[in-house]
Please model this.
Amino acid sequence: MKTTIRDEALQKSYHQHLNRIKGQIEGIGNQITNNEYCVDIINQISAIRGSLLSISKKLVNEHIQGCIVGDNQNHETAFKEINNLIDRIAK
Model:
């Protein structure tokens, strides 16, 4: 299994971001329990999707800089890997 070494500050940043997302998801559960307006719940879901996309972009940048460029892969291999990343986040 491949791994990526991250410094403590970067790990902390990712964890803080993910904890905010967890809080937002819990908030949706409360909204449903409290019979809140559908549009308000949908807005919260949209915010979560945006947060997930944001962390995905950070991870893609980290991967490109550290794993693709840092490994000095040939251009064709690097291009294929970047395209695969784009396909994964564009779903």
About this structure: The helical segments are 8-33, 38-69, 75-89. The two ends are 24 Å apart (CA to CA).
